[in-house]
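Re: weekly structure request thread

Next one in the queue (137 aa):
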Amino acid sequence: MIMKIYHRERYLTRLFVDFSIITVCYYLIRALFPVYAEQLFSVRNVALLGFLLTVWYFASKFINLYDTFLTRSLAREFVMLFQALIILSTALIAAFFFVSRDPEYSKTFVISFTAILAFIMPVQKYLIRRYYASKIA
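Done, posted below.
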C-alpha cells in the first residue's frame, strides 16, 4: 500500500513538473512572439494551453512516459520524451491549421515552442531522475 502511494506521488510530481514547464514555455513564446493585439491571458491563449496540456497528458499515457522510469535507461526515456514531443507538435500544428489567422506566426510559434521544449525537457527529466535515484540510494 505504501509503495503504491509512493509511486502515485512520484507520477503526480513528474506530471506536475512537465505541465509547469509546458505552461512556462508556452507563455514565454507567446510573450516573445506577440500576435496582433491579443492579450497574454486571453480566452484563446488559455484554451490553446489547455489543449496542449490535454494532448501531453494523453501522449504521455499512450507511450507510458511516467511508468517505472527508474528501471529503464536514460536514453530510452529520452526517446519516449521525443515521441511525446512529436505527438504534441503534430497536435499543435493541427490546431493552428484550423484556428490560425497568420500562417507565418503559426510556423514560428510551433518551431520555437518545440525547440525550447526539446532543450528543456531532457534536462528536467535528467534532474528528476537524479533526484529520485538519490532518494532511493
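The chain is about 80% helix and 0% strand. The chain has a mean pLDDT of 83.
Next request, please.
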